[in-house]
Amino acid sequence: MKRDTKIILGVVIAIVIILGILAYFASDGHLSMQNENPSATSSAQNATGTTEGTSTAATSSVVEMETKTITREADQYSIKDDYPAGNLPGASVVSAAIEKQASDFASRAAQENTPGTGSGNKYEQVVKYETYQHDGDISFVVKTYEYTGGANGINVVSTFVFDQNGTQLALADVVGQSTADQNAFLANVQSALSAKDKTLGIFAGAVQKLTFKDLSNFSLTSDGVVVSFSQYDVAPGASGIVTVTIPYSKINANS
Known about the structure:
This protein is an alpha+beta fold. It has helices spanning 2-36, 39-48, 54-58, 91-112, 171-175, 179-195, 197-200, 204-208, and strands at 67-73, 77-84, 123-134, 137-147, 154-162, 218-221, 224-229, 242-246. A five-stranded mixed sheet has the order 1-2-3-4-5, covered by helices on one side. Strands 6-7-8 form a three-stranded antiparallel sheet, with helices on one face. It is globular and about 55 Å long.
């Protein structure tokens, strides 16, 4: 009898221990699943618009619009250029500029890259663009990659900024028409470029020689005025297109 009681008691204790272990691992496993991907919940919430996150704020000035693509193939060249097809202010101007750029590149390739005289490789052009909106103004940032022989191609940036009426804006319209305002803005850009020297290998001499006219590639975003420089303009080729952002609080113009 005593032996049976001990056996039953042992079984009960074993069951209690097993249940306790199962409960522990079930709880721990649930926590582990939650922590395995802490961004999954917030990403799903952001996708449904129920929760605002920093990523939404960081891209609040980006404008999505319809895009069309120019595709041209020939023995001498390959062209794949995106251009805006929507009806935002200035979109038609940007589209016409990109279409002309494609046409000019095709003509150049046909002349320069003929069999026996060219590089032996197809010339290549790829155009992508980004659109930003700030206080009703629309900025188009057009990035062009071109390969015309040699080891590497080159990345070039050009920008177009329009007010809500479709009038194209110059940088002076934003920072001010006075020499003092423009020099102050230039100094801010030079300082911002110099601050990138350790990471991008900025060409100090090129930065010192910059004039206000050299800052023509600009865009307006929620973070400030972004000034862009094509590859090799102010840094080695490995740095690609270089940009600096000047906060609106540092701009002296009463715009």
